[in-house]
Design brief:
The complex is a heterodimer of chains A (312) and B (300). Helices cover 75% and strands 0% of the residues of chain A. Chain A is mainly α. Chain A has a domain of 178 residues: MetI-like (MetI-like fold), CATH 1.10.3720.10. In chain A, helix 7 runs antiparallel to helix 10. The C terminus of chain A is likely disordered. In chain B, helix 2 crosses helix 11 and helix 7 runs antiparallel to helix 8. Chain B is mainly alpha-helical and 300 residues long. The chains are: A mainly alpha (312), B mainly alpha (300). Chains A and B meet through helix 1, helix 5, helix 6, helix 7 and helix 10 of A and helix 4, helix 5, helix 9, helix 10 and helix 11 of B.
Amino acid sequence: MLRFILSRLLQAIPVIFIVITATFFLVRAAPGGPFDAEKVVLPEVKRALEAQYRLDLPLHEQYFAYLADLAQGELGPSFKYPGRSVNEILFSGLPVTAELGFYALLIALVIGVTAGVFASLKPNTRQDYIPMSLAMIGICMPSFLLGPLLVLVFGIYLEWLPISGWGAIPGDKILPSITLGAAYAAYVARLSRAGMLEILSQDYIRTARAKGLPEWLVVVKHALRGGLIPVIAFLGPAFAGLLAGSFVVETIFQIPGLGRFYVQAAFNRDYTMILGTTVFLSSLIVLFNLLSDVAAAWLNPRLRSQFSGGSR
Amino acid sequence: MTTLDSTHVTDDLLANAEEGASLWQDAWQRLRKNRMAVAGGIVLVLFMVVALLTPWLAPYAYEAQNLDLGASPPSGDHWLGTDVFGRDVLTQIMYGGRVSLAVGFIATAVALLIGVTWGAIAGYVGGRVDAVMMRMVDILYALPFMIFIVLLMVVFGRNVLLLFLAIGAVEWLTMARIMRSQVQSLRQQEFVEAAISLGLSPAAIIRRHVIPNALGPIIVYTTLTIPSVMLLEAFLSFLGLGIQPPQTSWGLLISYGAETMEEYPWLLIFPGLALTTTLFSLNFLGDGLRDALDVRGSKD
């Protein structure tokens, strides 16, 4: 087990390094300097600014200086908001996005696993078709469509829930969490159904039933552990997807989280902010992939040898 | 030389007639029984025909505005209503569909080309080349691509061509894995050994024997890749990082619709309906094909 974790860790390090390097040079290759849009700047001022952001150094020195900063956890100053560092901006957004992602994941797991297990108990009956059709709708209904529709119905027509903000009015966290979690609930439902169906046909389940165990005990105690391994393995990619989804959801509901900052940085061409956020988010995603792989392997030793690769 | 070639061709034809054709006929029979898949296929063909013929079918010109009319709900003149500039929504959706479908198909084609070539070479050559090539796939797999695409769109401007390439570059990885495992198992087969001993070049063997036999999983995965590509395009366009005006796409129309949905909900609902219907059809068709061709899914 330790060897498995170590080997996955060794794989993660080059990935993070590639991300840092590729992002750095991509951002530097971008057309137009960050100060081009400003009004005419005095040459001395421009030079001082460039020195502050180290743009006067040769490219490779900039790169090594950036790596050295990163090693100390320092992501540099923001181009757009002078006086604020990328670290500050990131850490003001992180708790919000983490909370949003947590609720979304909770919704996805609770609804998804319940629906999937429920469907797997009576395959090809109405108990299977109804939740699975709903899951198909969830997969085909992107968050940028579901969000506005939910706002329209529950926020504007019914006036049950607030339509934007985060933590300001009671209940304003409900719609964003559902919007972000719905598609993942659908995926989790499909995965847990497929996983449970496979496990329920195994010999040891028949043995458990033959022992005279009540059906719910067979399902909860014997089948769930194996049946949910695909769901656990999916959590890593789901985490990456949730982060990307937060771009849209935080934009729709005007939530001051990481995703919204990233999209804004992209629009403003705030290069240090883009660079810092990309490095930060990517490292988080790689870390989560690692955790979900380890968790899946811990539940099923057979997976260890199969899991040579990561997942998105 | 000619005799050798002709015998080979006849052999191939015979093989096709005995095994290949019946396999495909079998799959076709099974697919036809799956009502959702058939419905999905019909809807898709319909949408594609409409997309191809849009310049002739669209009720209004793409740029046509009617500022006096403004936003109006669905009516006899404008079946799906008009937007704030008095532009016909149906026309907008038809032109947007051209772009959305084109992105879906072209980006998937890019992914298909790279993935199949990569996987076929890795699986066929094997050994160290295979190990290196697949390790590269593993590393790329672990990269958070969604964020990278946003980054690419920012860095290189919002260019449609680049959008195709960027999305295609993301989706080829799974294709490469599927192709490689197919090729690896096919390599062991006797008819491939026979082809090798006949002196066929590796490229010819891959083209004539490996690809046709690996076609099932590739078709299924391709059908399921198109909707995820279209979603990605719509996602980027919604954020304003994808298709740019004056061009339009379903994602962009949804994003405009979301801005004014309080007053003019039809501007959100109809483009949304177009996108979800297409995604639905593609997913049902893909699932149906998977069952019909008896492919064990690696997608979920």
